[in-house]
Protein backbone atom coordinates (compact mmCIF):
# COMPACT_ATOMS: atom_id res chain seq x y z
CA UNK A 1 0.00 0.00 0.00
CA UNK A 2 1.08 3.59 -0.60
CA UNK A 3 2.24 5.97 2.13
CA UNK A 4 0.56 9.19 3.21
CA UNK A 5 1.09 12.31 1.07
CA UNK A 6 1.59 10.21 -2.09
CA UNK A 7 0.33 12.06 -5.19
CA UNK A 8 -1.78 10.03 -7.60
CA UNK A 9 -3.66 10.38 -10.84
CA UNK A 10 -7.26 9.21 -10.76
CA UNK A 11 -6.22 6.02 -12.56
CA UNK A 12 -3.44 5.35 -10.04
CA UNK A 13 -5.81 5.97 -7.16
CA UNK A 14 -8.26 3.42 -8.58
CA UNK A 15 -5.46 0.92 -9.14
CA UNK A 16 -4.34 1.38 -5.55
CA UNK A 17 -7.85 0.36 -4.46
CA UNK A 18 -7.65 -2.97 -6.30
CA UNK A 19 -8.83 -1.52 -9.60
CA UNK A 20 -12.12 -0.24 -8.24
CA UNK A 21 -13.53 2.66 -10.30
CA UNK A 22 -13.83 5.51 -7.80
CA UNK A 23 -16.40 7.99 -9.07
CA UNK A 24 -18.69 8.46 -6.08
CA UNK A 25 -17.15 9.92 -2.92
CA UNK A 26 -18.25 7.32 -0.37
CA UNK A 27 -17.47 3.60 -0.53
CA UNK A 28 -18.49 1.47 2.43
CA UNK A 29 -16.38 -1.71 2.61
CA UNK A 30 -16.18 -2.22 -1.18
CA UNK A 31 -15.83 -5.93 -1.90
CA UNK A 32 -15.25 -6.49 1.81
CA UNK A 33 -12.19 -4.23 1.85
CA UNK A 34 -11.41 -1.05 3.79
CA UNK A 35 -13.89 1.81 3.36
CA UNK A 36 -12.95 4.84 1.25
CA UNK A 37 -13.79 8.56 1.25
CA UNK A 38 -12.90 10.97 -1.56
CA UNK A 39 -12.83 14.53 -0.24
CA UNK A 40 -12.18 18.07 -1.39
CA UNK A 41 -11.88 21.40 0.38
CA UNK A 42 -11.51 23.37 -2.84
CA UNK A 43 -13.70 26.45 -3.30
CA UNK A 44 -15.92 24.76 -5.88
CA UNK A 45 -16.25 21.44 -4.07
CA UNK A 46 -19.82 20.03 -4.05
CA UNK A 47 -19.70 19.18 -0.33
CA UNK A 48 -18.41 21.07 2.72
CA UNK A 49 -15.60 18.82 3.92
CA UNK A 50 -13.39 20.25 6.65
CA UNK A 51 -9.91 19.65 8.05
CA UNK A 52 -9.45 20.43 11.76
CA UNK A 53 -6.92 20.13 14.57
CA UNK A 54 -3.96 20.61 12.25
CA UNK A 55 -5.05 17.67 10.12
CA UNK A 56 -5.71 15.08 12.79
CA UNK A 57 -9.47 15.43 12.36
CA UNK A 58 -11.65 15.42 9.24
CA UNK A 59 -15.31 16.36 9.18
CA UNK A 60 -16.76 14.82 6.05
CA UNK A 61 -20.16 15.81 4.67
CA UNK A 62 -22.53 13.08 3.57
CA UNK A 63 -23.79 12.85 0.01
CA UNK A 64 -27.01 13.92 -1.64
CA UNK A 65 -29.81 11.80 -3.01
CA UNK A 66 -29.26 10.46 -6.50
CA UNK A 67 -30.96 12.56 -9.16
CA UNK A 68 -33.32 9.70 -10.01
CA UNK A 69 -34.57 9.68 -6.39
CA UNK A 70 -35.86 13.28 -6.38
CA UNK A 71 -37.80 15.45 -8.82
CA UNK A 72 -35.67 18.60 -8.47
CA UNK A 73 -32.18 19.70 -7.44
CA UNK A 74 -30.85 17.14 -4.88
CA UNK A 75 -29.40 20.06 -2.90
CA UNK A 76 -32.97 21.03 -2.04
CA UNK A 77 -33.62 17.76 -0.18
CA UNK A 78 -32.38 16.24 3.07
CA UNK A 79 -29.54 13.82 2.54
CA UNK A 80 -31.08 10.33 2.68
CA UNK A 81 -30.08 7.43 4.91
CA UNK A 82 -32.06 4.88 2.90
CA UNK A 83 -33.06 4.14 -0.68
CA UNK A 84 -36.75 3.81 -1.69
CA UNK A 85 -36.25 0.05 -1.38
CA UNK A 86 -35.32 0.49 2.28
CA UNK A 87 -31.70 -0.48 1.77
CA UNK A 88 -29.18 1.94 3.34
CA UNK A 89 -27.46 4.58 1.26
CA UNK A 90 -23.76 5.20 1.79
CA UNK A 91 -24.83 7.78 4.39
CA UNK A 92 -26.82 5.08 6.12
CA UNK A 93 -23.98 2.56 6.13
CA UNK A 94 -21.43 4.99 7.54
CA UNK A 95 -23.90 6.49 10.04
CA UNK A 96 -24.68 3.04 11.41
CA UNK A 97 -20.96 2.23 11.66
CA UNK A 98 -20.30 5.45 13.59
CA UNK A 99 -23.24 4.93 15.93
CA UNK A 100 -22.34 1.33 16.75
CA UNK A 101 -18.80 2.50 17.56
CA UNK A 102 -20.15 5.25 19.82
CA UNK A 103 -22.38 2.87 21.76
CA UNK A 104 -19.55 0.36 22.18
CA UNK A 105 -21.00 -2.32 19.92
CA UNK A 106 -18.15 -2.34 17.40
CA UNK A 107 -14.63 -1.13 16.72
CA UNK A 108 -14.19 2.09 14.78
CA UNK A 109 -14.61 1.81 11.03
CA UNK A 110 -11.31 2.46 9.23
CA UNK A 111 -11.60 4.78 6.22
CA UNK A 112 -8.88 5.43 3.67
CA UNK A 113 -9.11 9.08 2.59
CA UNK A 114 -8.03 10.64 -0.71
CA UNK A 115 -8.12 14.41 -1.26
CA UNK A 116 -8.53 16.16 -4.59
CA UNK A 117 -5.82 18.76 -5.26
CA UNK A 118 -6.61 19.60 -8.90
CA UNK A 119 -8.72 17.92 -11.56
CA UNK A 120 -7.05 14.55 -12.12
CA UNK A 121 -4.58 15.05 -9.25
CA UNK A 122 -5.19 13.38 -5.87
CA UNK A 123 -3.22 12.83 -2.67
CA UNK A 124 -3.59 9.99 -0.18
CA UNK A 125 -4.30 11.58 3.21
CA UNK A 126 -3.99 8.34 5.16
CA UNK A 127 -6.25 6.07 7.18
CA UNK A 128 -8.73 7.49 9.68
CA UNK A 129 -11.07 6.12 12.35
CA UNK A 130 -14.76 7.00 11.97
CA UNK A 131 -15.71 8.08 15.49
CA UNK A 132 -18.95 10.09 15.22
CA UNK A 133 -21.82 11.06 12.92
CA UNK A 134 -24.78 13.39 13.17
CA UNK A 135 -27.44 15.26 11.19
CA UNK A 136 -26.86 18.99 10.87
CA UNK A 137 -29.17 21.64 9.43
CA UNK A 138 -27.27 23.84 6.97
CA UNK A 139 -29.95 26.53 6.80
CA UNK A 140 -31.87 24.78 4.05
CA UNK A 141 -31.87 21.05 4.74
CA UNK A 142 -30.40 18.29 6.90
CA UNK A 143 -26.99 16.93 5.94
CA UNK A 144 -24.91 14.13 7.45
CA UNK A 145 -21.58 14.89 9.06
CA UNK A 146 -18.94 12.29 9.81
CA UNK A 147 -16.01 12.89 12.17
CA UNK A 148 -12.80 11.00 11.47
CA UNK A 149 -9.57 10.93 13.47
CA UNK A 150 -6.14 10.07 12.12
CA UNK A 151 -5.08 6.51 12.96
CA UNK A 152 -2.19 6.22 15.39
CA UNK A 153 -2.59 2.54 16.27
CA UNK A 154 0.24 0.52 14.72
CA UNK A 155 -1.46 -2.86 15.19
CA UNK A 156 -4.16 -2.30 12.60
CA UNK A 157 -3.67 -5.06 10.05
CA UNK A 158 -3.95 -2.91 6.92
CA UNK A 159 -1.64 -0.09 8.00
CA UNK A 160 2.13 0.29 7.93
CA UNK A 161 4.52 2.37 10.02
CA UNK A 162 5.27 4.40 6.89
CA UNK A 163 1.61 5.40 6.64
CA UNK A 164 1.73 6.76 10.17
CA UNK A 165 5.03 8.61 9.94
CA UNK A 166 3.45 12.09 9.92
CA UNK A 167 0.93 13.32 12.45
CA UNK A 168 -0.26 16.39 10.54
CA UNK A 169 -1.86 16.81 7.15
CA UNK A 170 -0.55 19.40 4.72
CA UNK A 171 -3.36 21.92 4.09
CA UNK A 172 -5.04 21.82 0.69
CA UNK A 173 -3.92 25.35 -0.23
CA UNK A 174 -0.30 24.46 0.57
CA UNK A 175 -0.53 21.27 -1.52
CA UNK A 176 -1.91 23.21 -4.46
CA UNK A 177 0.76 25.94 -4.15
CA UNK A 178 3.60 23.40 -3.92
CA UNK A 179 2.29 21.34 -6.85
CA UNK A 180 2.10 24.45 -9.04
CA UNK A 181 5.47 25.82 -7.89
CA UNK A 182 7.29 22.51 -8.49
CA UNK A 183 5.44 22.02 -11.80
CA UNK A 184 4.28 18.52 -10.83
CA UNK A 185 7.86 17.19 -10.85
CA UNK A 186 10.41 15.90 -8.36
CA UNK A 187 12.59 18.90 -7.46
CA UNK A 188 15.73 16.73 -7.57
CA UNK A 189 15.38 14.76 -10.81
CA UNK A 190 12.34 16.12 -12.65
CA UNK A 191 10.43 12.83 -12.50
CA UNK A 192 6.64 13.01 -12.70
CA UNK A 193 6.08 9.48 -11.39
CA UNK A 194 5.49 8.25 -7.82
CA UNK A 195 5.50 11.76 -6.34
CA UNK A 196 5.14 12.62 -2.66
CA UNK A 197 4.66 15.82 -0.70
CA UNK A 198 7.79 15.98 1.48
CA UNK A 199 8.79 18.26 4.37
CA UNK A 200 12.17 19.96 3.90
CA UNK A 201 12.54 20.03 7.69
CA UNK A 202 10.69 16.92 8.95
CA UNK A 203 7.61 17.45 11.07
CA UNK A 204 9.25 15.32 13.80
CA UNK A 205 12.10 17.85 13.99
CA UNK A 206 9.86 20.90 14.24
CA UNK A 207 9.14 21.46 10.56
CA UNK A 208 5.78 22.93 9.64
CA UNK A 209 3.11 21.69 7.26
CA UNK A 210 1.54 25.15 7.07
CA UNK A 211 4.09 26.87 4.82
CA UNK A 212 4.80 25.96 1.20
CA UNK A 213 8.44 26.90 1.81
CA UNK A 214 8.81 23.79 3.97
CA UNK A 215 7.13 21.42 1.53
CA UNK A 216 8.43 20.08 -1.79
CA UNK A 217 7.70 17.39 -4.35
CA UNK A 218 10.00 14.35 -4.33
CA UNK A 219 9.79 11.12 -6.29
CA UNK A 220 9.65 7.89 -4.31
CA UNK A 221 13.37 7.19 -4.83
CA UNK A 222 14.57 10.54 -3.57
CA UNK A 223 11.99 10.58 -0.79
CA UNK A 224 13.34 7.24 0.45
CA UNK A 225 16.97 8.38 0.10
CA UNK A 226 16.20 11.46 2.17
CA UNK A 227 14.44 9.42 4.85
CA UNK A 228 17.44 7.08 5.12
CA UNK A 229 19.70 10.07 5.90
CA UNK A 230 17.54 11.57 8.63
CA UNK A 231 18.71 10.67 12.14
Specify the number of helices: 4
For the termini, the CA-CA separation is: 25 Å
CATH architecture of the largest domain: Roll
- What would you call the shape? globular
Q: What is the name of the CATH class of the largest domain?
A: Mainly Beta
How is the main sheet built? 8 strands, mixed
Radius of gyration: 18 Å
What is the count of structural domains?
Answer: 2
Strand content: 25-35%
**Structural category:** alpha+beta
Q: How much helix is in the residues?
A: 10-25%
Number of beta-strand segments: 10
Low-confidence stretches: 153-167
Q: What integer is the average pLDDT? A: 87
| Name of the CATH superfamily of the largest domain | SRA-YDG
What letter string, H or E per element, gives the SSE order? EHEEEEHEEEHEEH
CATH topology of the largest domain: PUA domain-like
Amino acid sequence: MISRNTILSHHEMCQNEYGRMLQAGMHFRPNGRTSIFLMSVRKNAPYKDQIEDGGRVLVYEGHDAARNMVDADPKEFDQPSALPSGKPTQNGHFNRAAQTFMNGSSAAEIVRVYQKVFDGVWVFNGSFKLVDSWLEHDGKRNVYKFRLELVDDLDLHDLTANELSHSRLIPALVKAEVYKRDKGCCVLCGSKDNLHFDHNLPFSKGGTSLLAENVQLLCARHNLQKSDKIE
